[in-house]
Structures are given as structure tokens and as C-alpha cells.
Amino acid sequence: MIFLHGWPSISFMWRAQMEAFAADGWHCVAPDLRGFGSSSAPAADNAYTIQEVVADMAELHDHLGGKPAIWVGHDWGCVVVGELVAHEPARSLGAVLVSLAYQPDGHALRTIVPLIDRTIYPKDEYPDGQWDYYRYYTKHFQTAVADLDADKAASLASIFRSGDPAAVGKVAPLAVVTRNGGRYGAAHCAPPTEPDPELWPLGDFDVLVRSFEAHGFQPSCAWYLNDAADIAYAREAPNDGRLSQPVLFVNGDFDQVCTIIGNRQGDPMRAACADLVVTSLPAGHWLPLERKAELVHAIRIWLKSKNL
């Protein structure tokens, strides 16, 4: 089982799941993706296309022996898993996507903005809906990075918060980044914030902070700058990106940005997956950290149901 994290994370986020599945007899591996943690961090923004990261994962998979694996992704890790399985299906027994639906035409503003729930985000007021922060990267990249880098520990602590059921159906803070002049508004720096030990054990959070102290936020944020290349790569996949292997999607019910409940974000995934199981857990976007044991249970049930 190969576990791929998203932004702004590192391989340590999967520790609870890896320990559980290793105890079940699986060989569990979680790399730091390029631009994160202990991995390489090229200077060029175009070094962070999904095609480049899929190539990294294929090389890692070959190094591990190349036998078909269960690939598990969260956030941008879901994008990498989906495209790897679409382009190189022989590498996969099945895929688990947590918190972010597969987009067969590529994960990019052009593909996800049309799927926004316009009852929450009227187009004239919120043209990019909850994805406004994504658009902000494309227009004000250096400012966005500088704001995050101003206090890396506070940025990470403020980003990794548990989901709030009271926020369901309401406008997400990430939908107003542009009008506020940045994620942290006029302050251009995260407010002092203590990390949540329920999400990150303090030792692991310290490792997370040190990894961003080493590279800064620019490499990881550059993943948001390659929409055209990512769409072009997705469209090169055979069978229009359809996935024939079993796929489990785990939705976070309180995820204001990526939930597929009450909107059309999951529709392309449903159309593109021949064998899709969808389940959900009462969590926000950081579901693998918020619901560690529950996620293990959901994956175990799915693996058993598919004889994997």
C-alpha cells in the first residue's frame, strides 16, 4: 500500500493508517512528494506538474519491485493517484481517494469551477466559489507564498484544524481570499496558533514545521500553477481517463471545499470509475488525521469486499 499526502503535508500524516495496515500484513510505504518534506524541491514552478510527480511515483514503485499496489491518496495525493492509475493501470490493484474526487479531465480550475454549488456561491459574488484561494495563487503567487512563509509554524497550525459541522452549507473562508487580499488579510501573516495535538502528535508537527523551514512554501504551492500542463496530461490517458480498477472514495462531511455532497464535484468521478464505492465520515478536510481509526475501518471493509 502506497500512501500519498497532499498540501501542505508530509508522509508522517499517514502514520496511524500505515501502522494498522502493516499489522494486517501489508507492506506500507509513504513518500514525501516533490516539494515537500525530505524530497527534492526543484526551483522551477513547472517542475511540479502531475506528470512529473507520477513519474516520481512510477520510479519509486519500480524500486519497490513494481507489483500492483493499493494506492491511497489525500488532497493533491488523490490527483497523483488518479492520474497514475489512469495512465499506468498495471501498477494498481485498486485506489483509495480521501477528501478529493478524481477529475478525469485533470484537477484544474477549468474543470472544478463549473462543479461549484451555486446555491452557496452565486457566480456574480463568488466566481470561483470555494476555489478562490486556488485562483489567488495563479494571480498573486509570490504574495501568497510570502504570507505563508511569514510564520511557518503558525501557518501550518492554522491550516490543520478539525472540521466544523456548523460550517456545512456556509461560505468557506477560502472563498474570500482574493477580496481579503490574501489568506491572512492585511496582516499577511498567520495569527499565533497552537497546533491541534489530536491531528498531529507534537513530535510529528515539529517535523512538519522543520520541513517547511527547510524549503519554504514556494515548492509545494507551485503545484497550483500548472493547470494547462495537468489538463493536457490527463487527456493523454487511455480510455478518456476511465478507471477500471476498484476505487474507494472517502468523503469528509464537514469539508467546505472538497465535499461531494450537495454539489456536482463527484459527478465526473462517478462517470469515470467502473467500480466505485463512496463512503463518508464526519470530518473536515484533514480526514486521515481527524478520523484515523475510522478511515482504517472503511478501507478494511472495502478491501475485504473486493477480495484485495
Task: Provide a descriptive summary of the structure in words.
The protein has a single domain, classed as Rossmann fold, CATH 3.40.50. α1 packs across α14, α2 (50-63) crosses α3 and α5 crosses α6 (141-149). The radius of gyration is 18 Å and the shape is globular. With 308 residues, the chain is an alpha/beta fold. It is built from 14 helices and 5 strands. The protein has helices at 15-23, 50-63, 76-87, 109-112, 132-139, 141-149, 152-159, 177-180, 202-215, 218-221, 227-234, 267-272, 287-290, 292-305, and strands at residues 2-4, 69-74, 92-98, 243-252, 273-281. The mean pLDDT is 97. It has a 5-stranded parallel β-sheet, with helices on both faces. 38% of the residues lie in helices and 11% in strands.
Note the topology.
Blueprint: E1 2-4, H1 15-23, H2 50-63, E2 69-74, H3 76-87, E3 92-98, H4 109-112, H5 132-139, H6 141-149, H7 152-159, H8 177-180, H9 202-215, H10 218-221, H11 227-234, E4 243-252, H12 267-272, E5 273-281, H13 287-290, H14 292-305
Parallel strand pairs: 1-2, 2-3, 3-4, 4-5
Number of helices: 14
Class per helix and strand makeup = alpha/beta
Radius of gyration based on Cα positions: 18 Å
Which sequence of SSEs, written as H and E, runs from N to C? Answer: EHHEHEHHHHHHHHEHEHH
